[in-house]
Amino acid sequence: MKFKLILWALSWLFRLARGCYPAFRARLAERDLVVQIRSEDGRAGRWYAFAGGRVRSGAGLHPEARVALVFKTAAIGARLLMPPIDQLEQIDALKNFLVRLEGPEDDALWFAQTVMASLSAGWRFGRKMKDGTTRFCTMTNGGPLFVYVADGKIVRTTPIAFGKDDAPSWTIEARGNAFTPPRKGLLSPHAMNWKAMVYAPNRLLQPMKRVDFDPNGARNIQNRGISGYEPISWDEALDIVAGEIRRMKREYGTGAIASSNGSHHNWGNIGYYLSAKLRFMNAIGTTEVHHNPDSWEGWYWGAMHHWGGSLRVGGGEPFGTVEDCLKHAEMIVFWSSNPEATNGVYGGQDGTIRRGWLRELGIEIVHVDPYYNDTAQYLGGKWIAPRPTTSPALALAIANVWISEGTYDKAYVAARTKGFEAWRDYVMGVSDGIPKTPEWQQAETGVPAKDVRALARKWAAKRTYLAVGSMGNAFGGAARNATGTQWTRTMVCLMGMQGLGKPGINVSNLQLGVPLDFSFYFPGYAEGGISGDLNNTALAGALYQRMPQLPTMNPSSQIIPRLRLPDAIIDGHAEGFLWDARSMEGQFTKVVYPKQGHAPVRMLYRYGTALLGTLSDSNRYVEMYRSPNLEFVVSQAIWDEGDTRFADVILPACTSMERYDIGEWANAGGYGAHFHSQVNHRVIAFQAKCIEPLGESKPDYEIFTMLACRLGLGAYYTEGMRDIDWVKRMFDASDLPRHISWKKFIERGYFVVPPEAPELRAPTAYRWFAEGEKKNVPEAMPLPGDYTEQFLEGLQTQSGLFEFESSSLKRYAPDDSERPPIVKYTPAWEGPHTAGLADRYPLQLITPHARFSFHSHGDGKDSFLNDIPDHRMLIDGHYYWIVRLNPEDAAARGIATGDLVKVFNDRGAVLCAALVTARLRPGVAHGYESSAVYDPLGPPGRSVDRGGCLNLLSPRRSQIRNSHSMANSTAMVQIAPWDGVVEYERRAPLTPGVAPADAMPAAGG
Amino acid sequence: MSKWNLIVDVANCTNCNLCALAVQDEHVGNEFPGYAAEMPKHGHRWIDIQRRERGAAPMTDVAYLPTMCQHCDDAPCVAAARDGAVRKRADGIVIIDPETSKGQRQIVDACPYGAVWWNEARGIPQHWIFDAHLLDAGWTEPRCVDVCPTGALRSVRVDDAAMRRIAEEEGLEELRPDLGTKPRVHYKNLWRYTECFIGGTVSAVRAGVVDCVEGARVELRRDGRTVAETVTDGFGDFRFDRLAPGSGTYTVDVRADGLPDAGREVTLGESAYLGEIRLDPAGA
Residue A992: its pLDDT value, please? Predict the structure, then answer.
């Protein structure tokens, strides 16, 4: 009876929504269709006939029903349909076959989504403003935005200024000052570039097919990257892609499809690659292109073995360091730490203001970087400029001074660390006869010995913060070059000597560690979103209990290490190591492609941002795209850039401004746990569909849904939900409903989480460790089973102590010369020492993370960033990527600022605009990684690129053999005035991926 | 009568370019009749940022100078315009009328700051309008101020006497006082961009190794007179700043207890890093 009543009520819900809401009326008009809802035995049921935009309904069974929603019994039907809908019960019912959907996939899905639409028909998004615009909200990789829209067009975007209704800001009291942040979100440059990105002339606005690609005939793979495209219909495009997915499985087996994506596409927990895309790829079964811990690199493969932190990719605890630093530190050493360039990561410029307080307090500042970087420019201070890749030698010399002069924290070393003696003997030359003195390092680093001694003495005498990498305790900078593991290891060892965790002694650049309320739950993007994937995201440990969803699991366990993807395709063989964060030992697992008995990869599903300029030795990817082994390439992308032009079929996706999503500023979750401690206020945005998708572009979720329908997976993939329904589910799963109603949230567009009460703020990172207490910072890591003596006692290391001599490395590979149990200095395998290289390619090129764009996000696209003279330079009608060089090096080559120059080595050649600057030491060139534009002037793969992909020149070799890591801020190059010679022969790189270790010179000095 | 002023703190500009990007966001693709025609997507920088590097590695610094229409009270562009195409509003803002200014390229040429841009396609001069269209609609500050993360840009609406007081208190300067145009944009810490330094590093051999000399007394003299004195820091570094470029020949004298004196002479063009000065008994 109850069942029948609910079904009757549903028919009235349709009628009511139809009467009130034109959008729902339009939806009803989309299809003519009879839908049956019934019990399995057919004794209870009701039909709904949609025709001509109207809906009729009747009790009983309809003979012409095309779609049927069938419940095992009427009682079960009543329970599942009775509002409020319980998601867990729904999922449970699906898993236990209590309910099923019959009929053609797209019709069934249309009905399910129409039911959802009837519930949401009254939702009103955005705020009407006095000037006639509607104000929406969105979240970007660089901060939250108000988006003002009129007549379906974006008029302007602005930062979000917080009002009286919003939560207050925190205050830090330090040395008689009260510091409080501005009442707004401070943006990254690329966040103020969105209007140009949305309306970019290279937006992909219709599905396309390469003109000479015929899925049933000649594929002309050799013409990828050369031939043009013709528009095709969505139906044709989806039929080709779905057909190829089926063919791959039929002809080769599950796993013959590999899927690959960049990491920084659009913001949003629904549309993110770890969400909608992962859900789809698991649903069809793919070989995972396994990411290297890019941007962390050296931290994961190096420092972690001394201080743990596997679940933070080798990085440190973030808590409380802003307050501790401002209160207690007397000096801060920024070592390859340029947060002003990268805004940490995702953090907008909220951290900039905090670092400004260092100046106000007169805290002494030192910068160690081959480039006088943006942070140095802003803060000033002493600049120490080692040659690239030599920082570990400089660090060893600092340790040498401390040991010689007895100025390290002996009590701390005795009580809280292990294995110091072995390292001390190396540092002092007892074990190898070479004391690592300041004089020893001078020949290697180019830094005068006296400066190292002065720095070491100041450091020992003052309570000193070490700011390492762009996040201050990990990430970017020197962690991405050939000696990245050595660098991170020496960095943490220095802190182990000076009492990491004591007041004023910690690892931070004030980017992380803002005193926020971390107990307010809102998921980060790595917490799985709608992926259903409990293995490859943080879903199981975080979001799943709050947002139950159909679990998904990739049937293929075959893995290709991402940096070896070209090898896998071209050579049919690839090896690497896992990024398995659960333990320190997770990374010791070797993966081999092909996996025994598994399908060879013959199709690539490309998704998201341009990746070509981001990965090292990019020409190898060009080669891969043109390999006959790759029978089909589909690219689902927003812009025609980078790798898109190597696809056979292009599926045009819309931007996050043209669809619904939800996300919190800088909250990555998972491997990026507490990344939102970078921002001054936790801001959670309802990411409105500000405008309709441009052209024929569609939301990624919709594209995946349409493909899923063609494969019979529509209901499984969507759970009957539209993207907005998932957004609502995520809202409900978070702590937001306790503070703001859905109605208010979607109208106002954002919510500011109140800051933590001062007395409840998270304790300072590692203070517990320094004081020998139990761990008391709010992070569920390491895993409970990974403590040694007692839960919450000690670090993740085997001893629970800071290990100068690493137990894990000693156990795994004690004789590994590249990564011995104690950190030693071995010069980079590609550097001025490398025999036969420096005479031809004398300049060390460093390629740090970009300042104005976010990897390839924001670059190219004819965007506003083109007009920033430090991003690209306009020469003869083209915007060229910039390479920086010292006045001496420029003069020796007859190069002036604004000249077109060729940057080249055996791997390739890139055309850049020169910028001559005293901010570099001689012998070093500087250009950002990650141009979005790949624009070869001749044949792809063997002609000069004027797009600016400097990674064409970087080595594909891992930092160390027992890893899967990039060393792409390492390249010996030559720079010369542009000679107009377009084509080149790519020569075998001097340092191939598996170069023997014995090619290395002995330690310098 | 309160009027708009912009205060630019050179010491806080990080070259993030958000001000310039916000101008593009506001004006590209948008027409504001009576205020501004659409801005060309590329090639115009109504707010521009100039770069100035001083010194040489490893003693160097970099200053960024945001420049824009100075909204002068005695604006050469107003004088150069025909048909009243450029007007001075009561609130101090200068507006080039997008209609009547058509074809008047002399308005571009008249601006001694190079802050008026010629829109080739439309045949009109254009500039940063202080977001007058938004202020008139009730906004409390122009967009460049709204987006500036460090407070390097600040707008104030006060009467001229109050502005003079602020300028006095904060040491604000005009970008080009020699021009006498009475700009409404005022600069703080302008010396970071316009002036020079002489710096060096003092070292000595002690206990058989070269070390930095901290606390060495350094005197800067010109024409026999002491210009400034300082002491070296823990890295042995000293720096005399805020010297006028091309201001003549200076002598630098270095004295440290128990070490021989040293001296250097430098004729100042741009900033000069003298490198390492070794206080060596053998005479460096």
Answer: 44
- Compare all CA atoms of chain B with the CA of A199 and give the residue at the minimum distance: B29
- Going by pLDDT thresholds of 50, 70 and 90, the confidence category of residue A845 is very high
The C-alpha atoms of residue B198 and residue A338 are separated, in whole angstroms, by 27
What distance lies between CA A16 and its chain's CA centroid? 44
pTM of the entire structure? 0.96
* Helix pair angle (A484-498, A420-427), 10° resolution: 110
Cα separation of A375 and A919, whole Å? 12
Phi first, then psi, for residue A811 (nearest 5°) are: -70, -40
pLDDT band with cut points at 50, 70 and 90 for residue A998: very low
3-state secondary structure of A371: strand
Residues 146-165 of B with CB under 8 A from A: 146-147, 149-151
pLDDT band at A993 (very low <50, low <70, confident <90, very high): very low
* Residue A907 in tokens: 């791997």
Nearest to B95 by CA among B84, B106, B105: B84
**pLDDT higher than 90, residue B238:** yes
Q: Structure tokens of A248?
A: 């791959």
Shortest CB distance from B58 goes to which of A384, A453, A454? A384
pLDDT of residue A85: 85
Cα four-point dihedral sign A887, B53, B275, A368:
negative
Q: How far is A462 from chain B (nearest CA, A)?
A: 12
Determine the straight-line distance between the first and last CA of chain B, rounded to whole angstroms: 64
The tokens describing A480, both together, are 């991405």
Average pLDDT of every residue of chain A: 95
Distance from CA of A115 to the nearest CA of B (A): 39
**For B31, which residue in chain A has the nearest alpha carbon?**
A155
Q: How far apart are the first and last CA of chain A?
A: 88
Does the pLDDT at position A246 exceed 90?
A: yes
DSSP string covering B182-231, please? --SEEEESTHHHH-EEEEEEEEEEETTEEEE-TT-EEEEEETTEEEEEEE
CB B199 within 8 A of CB B60: no
Of B53, B147, B236, the CB nearest to A187: B147
pLDDT at B284 over 60: no
Contact predicate A911/A882, CB 8 Å: no
Hey, what are A58's tokens?
A: 């009747």
User: How many whole angstroms separate alpha carbon A772 and alpha carbon A754?
Assistant: 32
pLDDT at position A999 over 50: no
**Tens of pLDDT, residues B103-134:** 999 999 999 999 999 999 999 999 999 999 99
- Chain A residues within an 8 Å CB radius of B214: 454
Q: Of A672, A791, A810, A765, which is closest to residue A305 (Cα–Cα)?
A: A810
Q: What is the mean pLDDT of residues A966-995?
A: 82
Catalytic residue positions of A, numbered: 264, 294, 525
What pLDDT, in 10s, does the model give residues A53-112?
999 999 999 999 999 999 999 999 999 998 888 889 999 999 899 999 999 999 999 999
Within A281-420, strands assigned E span: 287-290, 331-335, 364-368, 382-384, 417-418
DSSP of A909-921: EEEEEEEE-TTB-
User: For the residues of B229-258, what is the DSSP string, one character each?
Assistant: EEE--TTSEEEEEEEPTT-EEEEEEEE-TT
